[in-house]
Specification:
- It is a single chain.
- The chain has 20 helices and 36 strands.
- By secondary structure, the protein is α+β, with helices and mostly antiparallel strands.
- The strands form 8 sheets. The protein has a 7-stranded mixed beta sheet with strand order 30-29-31-33-32-34-35. Strands 18, 19, 21, 24, 26 and 27 form a 6-stranded antiparallel beta sheet that branches. Strands 1, 2, 4, 8 and 10 form a 5-stranded antiparallel beta sheet that branches.
- Helix 12 links the parallel strand 29 and strand 30.
- The N and C termini lie far apart (161 Å).
- The relative contact order is 0.08.
C-alpha cells in the first residue's frame, strides 16, 4: 500500500508542476506590459536581451529570433521595447575617459598588454647575464598592472634545478622563477606587488643565473643561453588601458610591439603639398624625441587605424576642416586655436593624437608646443646620451679627462661562484672623437678572488665586443685588487655609446675534477665591486668628413644648428616621406635636439651647405652619384637587380691582386727584398708603410644589397652630403626602417653602409682619406694629440718625420760643436 501511495503522490506532484508551468507560460506576456511594471525585473524575459545592439539594428527581426517563447514575443506590441533595461549601459561616456567598459569585448589582446622588451632579439648567455632598461607608464596603466609575463626558451644543457630568472622592477625583486623550457617556448608569469610601479619611468631588470647539467669546463659556459621572446614578454593589465592616453606626456608610454618595434603613424591630408613637408618633418622629430624608443619608424598613412595596435602612436595633423571626421570627434579647441592633444578614446581604448588648428599657421604653432619640456638649444653642451629606453641609466658623455665609478654606470657589487663572470657598462664619446690609433684608457679594478682560483685564470676587458686588454691571475691563495690599473686601448671606441665588458675566466681544481653528481658550487669565487672606476684621459678631438660613425653616434654635422640642412627628395609620396622622416628623426634622437631641416625642390640649389638626399637611385642626377664616389652605372644596373659591374682595375691594382695570388711563389725581375722581409717577419705591407692614405675607390653596390647609406662632400668640400637610397621606393622604406634599428644603427661607420635585407647583414666601406675640420678652439695640447694619432695611423710618415727630426738634431749638434769646440 505504501508503494502505491508513493507512486500516486509522485504523479500528483508532476501533474501540478505541469499545470503550474502552463499557467506561468500563459501569464508571462502580461508581466512585461506597461500596466505591471513591478514584474519587469523578476520576469524571465530579460535574458534574451543580452545583445542590446541587435534591437537598434533590426527591430522587427529581433522578436521572432528568440526560440524560447515565440508566440508571446510575436504578439508583443512595438511600443513596449524601450522598456528593456540592458540598453543604457552601452552608452559611450566611459569610453571618453580612455577605458572601455568591462562588458564590451576587447578588440585584441594588445589592449591589455604593455610589451616591455626593447630588443628585437634578446639572448641571455653564460652563467650570469642581465639587461636593464626603463619603460614609461601612465597612471591608468600603473593602477591596472597585475603581472609580468616572460616568454622564453633555453638551451637543453641548462640545469633547471640550478638556473633561474632574476627579475626586478624599480630595484624590487620579484618572485623567483626557474628556467625549464628546453623543448618548446615556456612562459613565466610573475605577480607585481602593489606600489612597486610608479607613474613615469620604471626600471626593468631582467637577468639569468644558469648552470650546465654535466660539463664543468670554461668552454661549456658558452653553451648556456636563454632566448627571450618579445611577443610574449609584457606587463598584463586588468583593464583595456594599453592605448589610453590623456595628455602629451603620455606619448612616452607608446612603447613597442611584439617585435620590439615602435611605429609613429601620421595621417596628413596635406602630405602631397611640398610647402607642408618641413612642418611634417619637424612634427616627426618632436614625436621621436618624446617616445625615445630604440627601434622607431615614422610612417605616413592615408587613414587612421580603427583598432589599437601595440607600439603604435596614431597622429592626425592638419587644419580642423581637413581632419574633421577622420577619427571620432575632433576636440572643440582645435577650431579655436592651436591644439595638440589626445581626443576621445575610440573602441578598445584607442586614443589618437590631434595636432590641429583653424589655419596652417595654427597647425605649425601646435607642432611647436610638442617641443615644450624636451627642447635643448643647439650648440649647448650635453652631458649624457639618452639610452634609458634600451639601457639604464643614460650613458654619460666623456668630453675630457674624467674618472667615473661603475656604480654611476649602473653596476652593482656582485659575488660569483661560477666559472665565467661577465658584466658590462657603457661610456659615450663625442662626434669629434679621434684617438683610434694611440690612446689608452684605464680601468681601475676593485675585485677579489678566492683561494680556489688557480693560476692561469684571467680578467679580460672588451670594448664593443673587441678584446682590449687581459690581466692574468698568477697567485695562489686568493687575492684582492684595489684600484688595479688595467690599460684599455681606445682603438675600438667610436662616437656615441660604447659597450665595455668585464669578463673573468676562473679555473679551479673542483671544476677540473668535475665529479659526477657533485652539487653546484655555492661559495663565491670572485667578486666585483662597484667602487671600480673607468678613467678616460684627454684625447684628440677633431672633426672628420665623410664619417658616418659621427653622424650615427651624435648626429654630426647636422646637429650644429647653424644654417638649415637641405633635404632633397625625389618625390613627395608616402614611402619617400616616411623614409626621410625616419632618418631625420633618428638623427634628432642621437643629437638630443631637433634638426633644422629645409626641403629643396632640386639638388642644384643646395650649394655648399650640409644636405641629405633620400630617394631611389635612378631619380638622382648622375653628377650627384659621382659626388658620393659611387660607380655611375649603379643607377641602371642596381635598379635591374643584376648588381653593378665593377670599374676596370688599374694596372697597379691588378698587379697587387696577382701578388696576393702568388704569395710565396717565385719572383723574377726587380723585387723589393726589404718589403718581403718586412711582410714575412713583421706583417707589414705596402699599405701599412704608406706615406699618405690611399685614394678613395668608387663603390659599386652588388646585386644582393637592397639599401645603402653613403656620405661624401659638397662640390667645394665645405658641406657634408649624405645619401639614403635603394633601387625602389618600397625597398627604400623597408631598408630605412631596418637600418635605423638600434642593433644595426650602431654598425653605421665609414663612408658607405650597404644593407642586405635577405641575409640581414651590414657591410661598410671605410674612409681612406678623410678631411679634417676644427670643432673647438685651437690649443697646443689638442694639436699634439691630433698629430700623435695621425702619425700612429701613418707609420711611414711617422718614421720619416722621426728620421728628419733626428737628422735636424744631429746637424744642429754638429754646428753647435763647431762653433763652441776646442779649436775655438
Amino acid at each position: 500500500m505504501s508503494g502505491r501511495k508513493s507512486i500516486r503522490d509522485s504523479l500528483t506532484v508532476l501533474m501540478w508542476g505541469a499545470v503550474a508551468t502552463g499557467a506561468f507560460a500563459q501569464s508571462s506576456p502580461f508581466d512585461m506590459s506597461p500596466e505591471r511594471p513591478a514584474q519587469t525585473t523578476p520576469a524571465p524575459v530579460p535574458p534574451p536581451a543580452v545583445p542590446p545592439v541587435a534591437p537598434r539594428q533590426q527591430p522587427p527581426a529581433q522578436i521572432p529570433a528568440q526560440p524560447s517563447a515565440p508566440p508571446p514575443f510575436a504578439v508583443q506590441p512595438p511600443p513596449q521595447r524601450p522598456a528593456v533595461p540592458p540598453l543604457p549601459p552601452v552608452q559611450v561616456p566611459p569610453r571618453q575617459e580612455g577605458v572601455r567598459p568591462a562588458s564590451t569585448p576587447a578588440l585584441n589582446a594588445d589592449s591589455r598588454r604593455r610589451y616591455i622588451l626593447p630588443y628585437e632579439k634578446l639572448s641571455l648567455s653564460g652563467e650570469i647575464d642581465r639587461r636593464q632598461w626603463s619603460i614609461y607608464l601612465t597612471p591608468e596603466q600603473v593602477n591596472a598592472a597585475v603581472s609580468l609575463n616572460i616568454g622564453y626558451q633555453n638551451a637543453i644543457v641548462v640545469a633547471p634545478e640550478n638556473s633561474n630568472f632574476q627579475v626586478s622592477l624599480n630595484n624590487v625583486a620579484l618572485e623567483a622563477a626557474r628556467i625549464e623550457a628546453p623543448d618548446s617556448e615556456g612562459n613565466v608569469s610573475l605577480k607585481i606587488p602593489p606600489g612597486v610601479l610608479q607613474v613615469g619611468a620604471n626600471v626593468v631588470t631582467l637577468g639569468v643565473q644558469q648552470r650546465h647539467r654535466t660539463d664543468c669546463t670554461i668552454q661549456s659556459t658558452y653553451d648556456l643561453w636563454t632566448d627571450v621572446n618579445p611577443a610574449n614578454s609584457y606587463i598584463g593589465f586588468n583593464a583595456d588601458v594599453a592605448g589610453s592616453f590623456a595628455n602629451i606626456d603620455d606619448i612616452q608610454a607608446t612603447g613597442a610591439d611584439g617585435k620590439a618595434a615602435t611605429s609613429i603613424e601620421i595621417v596628413a591630408p596635406a602630405l602631397g603639398n611640398p610647402a607642408f613637408a618641413d612642418s611634417l618633418l619637424r612634427l616627426s622629430q618632436a614625436l621621436a624625441l618624446r617616445t625615445q624608443m630604440p627601434n622607431q619608424t615614422i610612417r605616413f598613412v592615408t587613414a587612421p587605424s580603427t583598432e589599437r595596435k601595440a607600439g603604435t602612436l596614431s597622429v592626425i595633423v592638419g587644419t580642423a576642416r581637413e581632419i574633421a571626421g577622420m577619427a571620432g570627434t575632433l576636440p572643440p579647441e582645435a577650431s579655436a586655436g592651436a591644439f595638440a592633444g589626445f581626443g576621445a578614446a575610440a573602441p578598445g581604448g584607442f586614443s589618437p593624437l590631434f595636432v590641429s588648428g583653424p589655419t596652417p599657421q595654427a597647425v605649425q604653432a601646435a607642432i611647436e608646443t610638442l617641443f615644450s619640456s624636451i627642447s635643448r638649444t643647439p650648440g649647448t653642451q650635453r652631458t649624457t646620451f639618452s639610452t634609458r629606453s634600451w639601457h639604464a641609466p643614460d650613458v654619460p658623455l666623456v668630453m675630457s679627462d674624467r674618472r667615473i665609478a661603475l656604480s654611476e654606470l649602473g653596476l652593482q657589487s656582485t659575488e660569483f661562484g661560477g666559472r665565467r663572470f661577465r658584466n658590462e657598462f657603457y661610456v659615450g664619446m663625442p662626434a669629434d672623437f679621434y684617438a683610434s690609433a694611440y690612446g689608452e684608457a684605464s680601468l681601475l679594478l676593485d675585485a677579489a678572488y678566492s683561494s680556489q682560483v688557480l693560476p692561469g685564470s684571467h680578467v679580460d676587458i672588451y670594448v664593443n665586443d673587441q678584446i682590449a686588454s687581459t690581466v692574468p691571475i698568477s697567485n695562489n691563495g686568493g687575492g684582492i685588487f684595489r684600484h688595479l690599473p688595467i690599460k684599455v686601448t681606445m682603438r675600438h671606441f667610436k662616437p656615441g655609446p660604447n659597450r665595455v665588458t668585464i669578463e673573468a675566466v676562473l679555473m679551479t681544481a673542483q671544476d677540473q675534477a668535475c665529479a659526477p653528481g657533485a652539487p653546484a658550487n655555492t661559495t663565491p669565487r670572485f667578486a666585483l665591486f662597484d667602487t671600480s672606476e673607468i678613467h678616460i684621459p684627454d684625447y684628440a678631438q677633431i672633426g672628420r668628413k665623410p664619417d658616418l660613425a659621427a653622424m650615427a653616434g651624435a648626429g654630426q654635422p647636422y646637429r650644429s644648428g647653424g644654417a638649415p640642412v637641405a633635404l632633397s627628395l625625389d618625390r613627395f609620396d608616402t614611402d619617400t616621406m616616411s623614409a626621410a622622416a625616419t632618418l631625420v628623426s633618428r638623427l634628432a634622437s642621437v643629437a638630443g635636439h631637433p634638426i633644422n631641416i629645409e626641403t629643396v625642390a632640386s639638388p642644384l640649389v643646395i650649394g655648399d651647405r650640409d644636405a641629405l638626399f633620400v630617394g631611389t637611385i635612378s631619380q638622382f642626377p648622375q653628377a650627384l652619384i659621382s659626388q658620393f664616389n659611387l660607380v655611375p652605372s649603379s643607377q641602371i644596373s642596381w635598379k635591374a637587380g643584376t648588381g653593378v659591374q665593377q670599374p676596370a682595375q688599374s694596372s697597379e691594382t691588378l698587379f697587387n691582386d696577382w701578388r696576393e695570388r702568388v704569395d710565396g711563389g717565385v719572383w723574377e725581375g726587380q723585387v723589393s727584398s726589404l718589403e718581403e722581409w718586412m711582410k714575412r717577419n713583421f706583417d707589414l705591407s705596402s699599405d701599412t708603410l704608406r706615406f699618405l692614405p690611399a685614394a678613395e675607390q668608387p663603390y659599386a653596390p652588388p646585386g644582393n644589397v637592397s639599401f645603402m647609406l653613403a656620405q661624401g662632400l659638397s662640390p667645394s668640400g665645405g658641406g657634408v652630403w649624405t645619401l639614403a637610397t635603394a633601387p625602389t621606393s618600397a625597398e627604400l622604406l623597408d631598408g630605412m626602417a631596418a637600418m635605423t634599428r638600434e642593433n644595426r644603427w650602431r654598425d653605421v661607420t665609414g663612408r658607405v653602409v650597404a644593407y642586405d635585407a635577405a641575409a640581414g647583414k651590414v657591410e661598410t666601406v671605410e674612409v681612406e682619406r678623410p678631411y679634417f675640420y676644427g670643432t673647438r678652439a685651437f690649443s697646443l695640447s689638442n694639436a699634439r694629440l691630433i698629430a700623435a694619432n695621425w702619425l700612429s695611423s701613418n707609420v711611414l710618415s711617422y718614421s720619416l718625420a722621426f728620421i728628419g727630426f733626428v737628422s735636424l738634431l744631429g746637424f744642429a749638434t754638429f754646428v753647435m760643436l763647431r762653433l763652441m769646440g776646442r779649436h775655438r
